[in-house]
Design brief:
Elements: H1 2-21, H2 28-38, E1 47-56, E2 61-67, E3 70-77, E4 93-100, E5 112-116, E6 124-127, E7 139-142, E8 145-146, E9 149-150, H3 153-166, E10 172-178
Parallel strand pairs: 1-10, 6-7
Antiparallel strand pairs: 1-2, 2-3, 3-7, 4-5, 4-10, 5-6, 8-9
Length: about 180
């Protein structure tokens, strides 16, 4: 029994030595790092998407997507033609958005976004595509832009979805403005 007690005492002393070595000195910087590490994505109140449209042609409307204030990727839409279905981008304004699962779509086999409550319109999506021919009134995303086109749409869409999921994936708000 004596040997067991000595062994337990030595074990506890070794554990205490290890713990003492791992104690951090707290400075303002480490405190900020700790607070940041403790934040969970679900603590974020929502996801704010902002599209600022800046290039307008007869074939397309190109802009920039910001997520929670950070510039994120390029966007491409149809030109504005009186909010007509399948040929026009949607009007400037504020909209609710939700994640849309692949099983909810007959044509999109990947997670994408659905813009809700667009006046006189339905099924306005954020999805992959590179030119206005790839959209029927939806919003395409890309990394890089050319005349009437965005590039690397698949990568951009994957990154947008990943960022939205990292931010909690709920309470998604969209504001669209023309420059």
């Amino acid at each position: 029994m004596k040997n067991l007690n000595r062994w337990l005492v030595k074990l506890l002393q070794a554990v205490l030595r290890v713990l003492e070595r791992n104690v951090r000195e707290y400075t303002p910087k480490t405190q900020v790092e700790d607070r940041t590490a403790l934040k969970k994505p679900t603590e974020v109140k929502g996801v704010n998407l902002l599209i600022i449209r800046d290039t307008f042609t007869k074939e397309s409307t190109i802009g920039r997507l910001f997520i929670n204030g950070e510039s994120f990727c390029d966007t491409l839409e149809n030109p504005y033609i009186n909010n007509e279905r399948n040929i026009s981008c949607i009007p400037e304004g504020q909209y609710k958005v939700r994640l849309r699962l692949p099983r909810e779509s007959a044509t999109r086999n990947y997670l994408h976004l659905l813009v809700q409550d667009v006046p006189n319109r339905s099924y306005i999506l954020f999805h992959r595509g590179n030119t206005a021919k790839d959209t029927s009134g939806c919003i395409l995303v890309g990394n890089g832009r050319e005349h009437n086109a965005v590039n690397n749409s698949r990568l951009a869409m994957d990154l947008v979805i990943k960022e939205i999921l990292n931010l909690g994936g709920e309470n998604i708000n969209l504001i669209i403005k023309n420059k």
